Fold Box C/D snoRNA protein 1.
Amino acid sequence: MQDETPESTNCEICTANYFKYKCPRCEIRTCSLSCCKKHKEDHSCSGIREKTVFSRKDSYNYVHFLSDYRLLDGIDQRNETRELLLMKTDRLVKRKPDKSALKRHAEELGMNLKCSNSLLLERVRRNRTRFSKPDECWLWTLEFVFFPFVKFADELVNESSNWFHKLEKPIKVLLHDVKESSNLETLWEERVIKRERVSIVNESENNSFAIWLNGSLESEKEPNFHFYIQVENYELSNSSTSSFSRSFSRRQIDVDTTLKRILTAQSNVIYEYPTIFVSRVMI
């Protein structure tokens, strides 16, 4: 093997210092972090070795061996995860509910209902909406999502933004077996406030439903609750291609409304089951 010349031992970026590092991807020699960053910018190099690049036998070394080993090991792990997921899917498919009757009912009501048959989705697994033969009516799952105490920043209440998705793990309360004729105020006072037959999600010691419900605000003498639904708006963004853009906004609802009116509200898209957002302050 030919000995390296003094020039070849220097940094290829500044050429002033001996090199300390060699790029795994392009093998350019550098002496410092600044030179390393400059080489990435100048050569558009990611600094990550191509795992599937061809290596000649005479240049194949232990570093190449480790890289190949980790590549194959990673493929094995992903295949194992995929097999477990497929096994889980097969078990779930055996108890997959038939939603054809629910979809027909939604069409009769004029609802915009979006359903999925994949039980891998958490929202689908939580949904217990069903038809009750003894009551001869549909019983719905209803979700309440609670906003934090503080008012949101401007970007959170911007009508053109999807403000719901900017909430970080809000407290949720799920009610099951809710009739379409049920009154929102009655559901709130008799079941949510009293925690009668409800499931609470994302509750923690520092973020509990009791703290949210009973906490005091300087601006109020007694707790006030404001109810909203999220509606979807579509606007023509490109007339030549007939493409539409979607935006989300909130709409306040009266406390004396019924579940049926919420289900059939204009522009209200129901994903599996209806969601009502609750805030202690006006937003």
User: Anything to note?
Assistant: The radius of gyration is 29 Å. Confidence is low (pLDDT under 50) at residues 1-6, 151-163. The longest strand covers residues 226-238. The longest helix spans residues 62-93.
